[in-house]
Amino acid sequence: MTIQLDDLLESLDRALSALKAQSESRHKGDIENLVRIKRILEGLDPDEIDALLEDEDE
Fold first, then answer.
1. Which of 5, 17, 27, 52 is most buried per CB count within 10 Å?
2. How far apart are CA 9 and CA 52, in angstroms?
């Protein structure tokens, strides 16, 4: 995996941990969505992610 992808996944993990630590039911949907996003990112080709992020910068 590329460094950018690793950074994104680490950020998601930190966000998930913070939301889970609050243990409020209103965050349940956010947690589920972040887990889905993480699965999607893990399934993508790291080069695709780099290309998407480069397009965003332009």
1. 5
2. 16
pLDDT value of position 54: 81
Provide the residue-wise pLDDT of the chain in tens; the chain has 58 residues: 567 888 999 999 999 999 989 877 888 899 999 999 999 999 988 888 888 888 665 5
DSSP string, 1-58: --HHHHHHHHHHHHHHHHHHHHT-GGGHHHHHHHHHHHHHHHHS-HHHHHHHHHHHH-
> Residue 23 has which token pair?
């243990």
